[in-house]
Write a structure and sequence with these properties.
CATH topology of the largest domain: TIM Barrel
Distance between the termini: 46 Å
Low-confidence stretches: 577-623
CATH class of the largest domain: Alpha Beta
Number of strands: 23
Structural class: alpha/beta
Number of domains: 3
Oligomer: single chain
Number of helices: 20
CATH architecture of the largest domain: Alpha-Beta Barrel
Radius of gyration: 24 Å
Mean pLDDT: 91
CATH superfamily of the largest domain: Metal-dependent hydrolases
Length: 625
């Protein structure tokens, strides 16, 4: 085919390009993995040859592919097939019915794992499931349920499998809830850090290598179904380089990547952080790789003493006195070696101290055009935004407040939540901002939940956090999830818009994001997803273009039966034939608490809140990221 002839054209659509020269067109031509031309149906169709694949969009909206600037895809993919997802489920009745059905098909010694992505406020019952309910639906199969960054619920079988009994001491930084007789109830509490949660989760059986490969492919396909074509992987606890990258590197070598990944390297050794980055600097260089798998620098963990774990049910942590020295040693090395970096920072107090370090280094070792940014920055002040801007930094925001906003309001008040984070101020000041989720262990990987939060300022439970002044217009929010994220990996010249010579990464959406009702944003999926001009997912009117994956493995995988992200309209409770609404624990048991977890745990007043100076001194919490 002539290079000037399109391999594929899409026509009869509403294509949002984010290209100022042609903001909306009806047709697009694609060749050699890139956008060849944009225009009207007539202008593009005349370019077609006998070999061109022509796809009628039937008036559907097309957007540039979404790019999650903070995702834990590499680690999350290894476990995706063995995790039951409560993301999007509308009731405890359905959540527990799913749990009961999955427990019945999960073979020993495997566990049923619900690992993040849900909030008690998404359920119509407005509460969490109780331990009594969990044990009733799964008396024999171990069950581990992670709730945000604050606690995990384990049934009796999981307590036994994890070796947690009456004589098990509380680990540093964590609490095993006990009954009046000293027996563990099944609730593990991050008080004040999450090591107890993630070290317990790590005791569950892992998948063999072939299943991990299959699992990662299915996770990427689920992201494709939701419109994600690129991400920046933020590393994570127990994600050593290069040892723990063999699965993603094999998929890359075999041409089976359907999400482009730029990956950051996350230090693994408390006290040995500088040595980690010195070692990695001798193995790999920033931006090395190709368009599907490339290195993106350091972080999100640079040093453990600078990581302010965010659990809004606990007081804000103060960082260790050693933070400045340890962070300075690592950042100076990174700047000297021109390694871009990102740094986890929830609170303004942490950001303030980190900026002191950065500015001191910049005085003698200039940052110049080095790409760097803070992750999260929920409570960053305008003063520190100005300092970030002056030093050429950026911010990656995630929808963590959509899952923890109620707890933030409980602790700090509604007024403090109105600009947490200050989205509008960041953009007004011209700070580069990228959108993302911080999935998979706490928030959902669904980008549309994040876009809903950016546009409406509401949590998944419907609580309005922000006024109109801190909410974004739809195109602004979309730009954070496209061009804004591309900037974080130094790829804004090839990603983030549908312009000639840029990557043909695009999605055809089930609903028109630009015009649909606010509440419908959360229900959007992609009907056709292209990465580099290649169709990696297709459904409904476009299903003839789809190439399905092999079934999720192992054969008892929750993904085979429930898929990934759910919808509130999906009902599983009726499928649990053993349930009866008037007697079943799933439907009839409402004892426990009233939806305010802080009240349920007796954390309503300062006297009952955990007090600590620096949770990271108590043990590694890197599992949380």
């Amino acid at each position: 085919m002539n290079p000037s002839s399109p391999e594929t054209i899409l026509f009869n659509g509403k294509i949002t390009t984010l290209d100022p020269a042609q903001p909306e067109v009806s047709a697009i031509a694609i060749a050699a993995g890139k956008v060849l031309a944009l225009g009207s149906d007539a202008q593009i169709q005349v370019m077609a040859t006998a070999d061109t694949v022509a796809i009628d969009l039937h008036g559907k909206r097309v957007l540039p592919g979404l790019n999650d600037s903070h995702l834990h895809l590499i680690r999350g993919g290894l476990n995706y097939n063995i995790e039951l997802r409560w993301e999007g489920v509308g009731s405890i009745a359905d959540a527990l019915a799913m749990l009961q059905l999955q427990a019945a098909r999960t073979p020993a010694p495997q566990w049923v794992r619900v690992v993040g992505g849900w909030s008690e406020f998404q359920f119509k019952e407005r509460r969490m499931p109780t331990l009594t309910e969990i044990n009733a639906v799964s008396p024999d199969t171990p069950v581990f349920i992670l709730h945000l960054y604050d606690r995990a619920l384990l049934n009796g079988a999981a307590l036994r499998a994890a070796g947690i009994g009456k004589d098990t001491p509380d680990p540093p930084g964590g609490k095993i809830q006990r009954d009046a007789n000293g027996n563990p109830t099944g609730m593990l509490i991050a008080e004040p850090n999450a090591m107890i949660l993630y070290s317990t989760l790590a005791k569950g059986p892992k998948l063999p290598l072939d299943d991990q490969i299959n699992s990662t492919r299915h996770f990427m396909r689920e992201l494709n179904r939701l419109g994600v074509t690129s991400c920046i992987d933020a590393g994570g606890g127990f994600q050593n380089y290069p040892e723990d990258y063999q699965v993603i590197e094999k998929l890359h070598a075999d041409g089976q990547m359907t999400v482009r990944i730029a990956y950051n390297l996350f230090t693994q050794n408390k006290g040995g952080e500088l040595e980690d980055f010195q070692k990695w600097a001798g193995i790999v260089k920033p931006y090395s790789g190709d368009s599907y798998f490339r290195q993106n620098g350091a972080g999100e963990m640079l040093v453990f003493s600078a990581a302010d774990f965010e659990d809004f049910l606990q007081p804000r942590p103060d960082m260790a006195a050693s933070m400045e020295k340890e962070l300075g040693d690592v950042v100076r090395f990174l700047v000297e070696n021109r390694w871009p970096f990102r740094l986890h920072a929830t609170y303004d107090e942490t950001i303030d101290r980190a900026l002191d370090v950065f500015e001191a280094i910049d005085r003698d070792t200039r940052f110049d055009d080095l790409r760097w940014f803070f992750d999260h920055a929920e409570t960053v002040s305008e003063k520190n935004l100005a300092r970030i801007k002056q030093l050429g930094g950026g911010i990656a925001v995630q929808h963590r407040m959509a899952f923890q906003g109620e707890y933030f309001v409980d602790r700090y008040g509604k007024k403090a939540a109105e600009h947490t984070p200050p989205l509008r101020k960041m953009l007004e000041m011209g700070i580069p901002v990228g959108g993302g989720t911080d999935a998979t262990r706490v928030a959902s990987f669904n980008p549309w939940v994040s876009l809903y939060w950016l546009v409406t300022g509401r949590t998944v439970g419907g609580l309005p956090l922000y006024g109109e002044s801190n909410c974004l217009e739809r195109e602004e929010a979309l730009r954070l999830w496209t061009a804004g994220s591309a900037y974080k990996s130094n790829e804004e010249a090839v990603k983030g818009a549908l312009s000639p010579d840029m990557y043909a990464d695009l999605i055809v959406t089930s609903h028109d994001f630009m015009t649909v009702a606010d509440e419908t944003i959360k229900a959007i999926t992609s009907l056709l997803t292209m990465v580099g001009g290649r169709i990696v997912y297709a459904a409904d009117d476009f299903s003839r273009f789809d190439t399905p994956l092999p079934p999720a493995s192992p054969d008892w995988s929750p993904v085979r039966y429930f898929g990934g992200h759910q919808t509130p309209q999906t009902h599983y409770a009726l499928s649990a034939a053993s349930c009866a609404a008037h007697t079943c624990a799933i439907h009839g048991h409402h004892s426990g608490h009233d939806g305010k977890l802080s009240r349920w745990l007796g954390l309503d007043n300062a006297g009952k809140q955990a007090q600590f100076d620096n949770p990271w001194a108590l043990g590694c919490g890197c599992f949380a990221y």
